[in-house]
Design brief:
30% helix; elongated; 7-stranded mixed sheet
Amino acid sequence: MLSLATKRIPVLKWTSLGRRTISTSRLHLAPSASESRSLPPSDYETPVAGTKVLESFTEEFEIGSKKITFETGKMARFANGAVVLAMEETKVLSTVASGKGDALRDFLPLTVDYQEKQFAQGVIPTTFMRREGAPKERELLCGRLIDRPIRPLFPAGFYHEVQVMASVLSSDGKQDPDIMAANATSVALMLSDIPWGGPIGMIRIGRISGEFIVNPTMDELNLSDLNLVYACTKDKTLMIDVQAREISERDLEAALRLAHPEAVKYLEPQIRLAARAGKRKKEYKLSMMSDMTLEKVRKLAEAPIEAVFTDPTYGKFERGEALDGIAQDVRRELEEEGDEESLKALPKTVDTVRKGIVRRRIIAEGLRVDGRRLDEVRPLFCEAGNLPQLHGSSLFSRGDTQVLCTVTLGAPGDAQRLDSLVGPSTKRFMLHYSFPPFCINEVGKRTGLNRREVGHGTLAEKALLAVLPPENELRYTIRINSEVMASDGSTSMATVCAGSMALMDAGIPLREHVAGVSVGLVTDVDPSTGIIKDYRILTDILGLEDHLGDMDFKIAGTRNGITAIQLDIKPAGIPLDIVCESLEPAFKARLQILDHMEQEINAPRTLDERNSPRIVTLKYSNESLRRLIGPLGALRRKIEEETGARISVNDGSLTIVAKNHGVLDKALEKVDFIIGREIEVGGIYKGIVTSIKEYGAFVEFNGGQQGLLHVSELSHEPVSRVSDVVSIGQQLHLKCIGQDIRGNIKLSLKETLPQPRSATNNVVEIEGYFSQIKQATDSWASVGSIPTEQEKQHSAVSKHESSGVASSSYSSPSILIRSAAECDEEEKSAGLKRNSKGGFEAPMNAKSLKIGVEVTSKVHQIRARGLVLDLGGGIRGMYRFETNGKRDFVVGDELRVKCLSFTSKGIPVMSRAEDD
């Protein structure tokens, strides 16, 4: 629904004109001479302020349930044209200005600058200077989005410098300002005195659950499988830009048919506003070639140029050299005649003659410059993995166009940070496109961000983004680098093909291969009416056909649908029917290219040790992560410098990305030493012996955690003294074999050692005894001091075992692990003394305890199936009740027992001496 709301608003007050005078330290505006004679003396001290009224013109209308406002006259009044476009709380100012003087050039120097300053969202920039720097990628892309539809509408021969500046004044984060800036630019050009064939309308279309949405918000775009930007005049298409998730050609055509009438709704308010507030168009001098000059050059150059174009054996540079030679011959003819006017317009005139010959042959005969049919794709060459040391690489050639793509995988922390007003804050998939001068055999200087390179790279990036797995499944940050090796048309679509193969070479699980092709158009237009009389659609256009044709329609997608589109045109619009007709030949060509790509690589490669990166994500507490980072991140940076790995820290997780397996092991070792990992039974850990006891050694491992290496876990052979096997400060690789009921960690050295081929008879006898009493020994609890509740639990476990119910080996451990401090205190109370080797000596009766030795013991504890005996010197042994033997013991009873054997934990197994 359109409604007109034109009004005049007083917006500025200023004082009457006069000279400034200083009186009594105050600044006044003195009245004019006529006013001073009519005013009383008292009015001289307080001058009366005048009022200046600025006329502000507005237009309000609705599109897609959004209220849109055009306003002019309030801001930037000195520009040729200026307008503020508002949609809800987002406002964009667009201005246009034209250069003065004569245009002594043969091209239109149109500059479009789009800028998003941080004040628009109430933020101070985080840069060192606290101000915005060079244009960001998004700003360059938005500038191209404005440039592409307005450029074809400037009149032929208008070569005066024109600058468009679009600035976001405020942003609510709901609307993307790019579409608003394009429409505001159209209004500014309509209001200005610059000749221009507008207006235009630009619209965005999304689709959620199969339903199209006009002007979707940023939140709706996140859910949409289509992001279509469409620009047009009243009856012709000017520009199309698409990012989609494999949308079919039929659905895309339906979206285009919806977008056109919605975009046309922007036109009528612009026309009304220009009629009320616009300036009269200036009479600019147009640089037009005369008909006499064109006819003279045609007679001299047409025949030799046609001979070159009809010979398909010419390559790109051979053809170019032949055409340059013809132009030089014509120049010599004109110099001999002294025709200065024709000499000035010679380059443009020769180009016009070339264009006429190529277009006539295509329309009339269906013949192209290189001899191909209109729907024929150039010869293809594909190679994946041509640079084996990289994570992924590929080389793609189509005709003389050749592109090399490489893939580099990084940590999530390597993602690009975005400072745009809308959209995500980071980007984990990047495609960087480079067009070096050597690819067209030229000499040039490499500069910073190039608008064309950014646009081509973003198009290929959008095409591939649709087939990548979700970020929660793909933990890498991915960078594709596209290097154009040779250019003869559609290098951006070659980048899509090469990038798809390189991703599969890197092992990225793409859903489908993506390929792209560029479709061109040649039309025969009635010069009097501008109506297209005839046309031809060209598949896979050359660079020359792009230059001399009317359309460059880049379409990328999979076998299932389209993922990205970019349409650029040279005339002042193309009918939408022709655009939709071009989708079918593009689909057929895309299938041919996909066949060749799949023959080279049709599935993601598996990771190999040589070139594939390694990535691991570990869970830690935030306190542990703070220890790893260190002050100002110094510790993390040190690990990265020493190992070459990249470390990313998020809330509760640590991600390490390494170039290969060896680098990952080094990084994990350093991280483990600082904060450790989650302990897993069966895991192998590196530790350092911190103290040695008679019954084992305490080991520090996994970032400061402590575990016990019992004497029975030192070796497959019996060990009499712990210090004979390990020493304090020694580094060991140990296996975690479990935890006791208190959570103490049990370690084993012998589990990491190979099994001996043979054993002594003594060991065999002991193992035989173990097999007889296995059920009994499993039911024994630790022989140290255990609370009563734990004794009851172990007694209950024993009863279950006797009834045939199995229990976990960790629910009733054989020993009780104490801290080093507790063990030292226990040893002091037991009368143990440290020897010179760091071990401990027990009293004589305990030290000399061997198999067959008899000792007098006391009953220390009574269990369900036996006794825990105090053998003296803090040594505990166990005695199993004999069948039909005495069971009515009390704590403190003395028994004469003999050492029968030792358990795997080093506990002596005793029997009654008098029974033997």
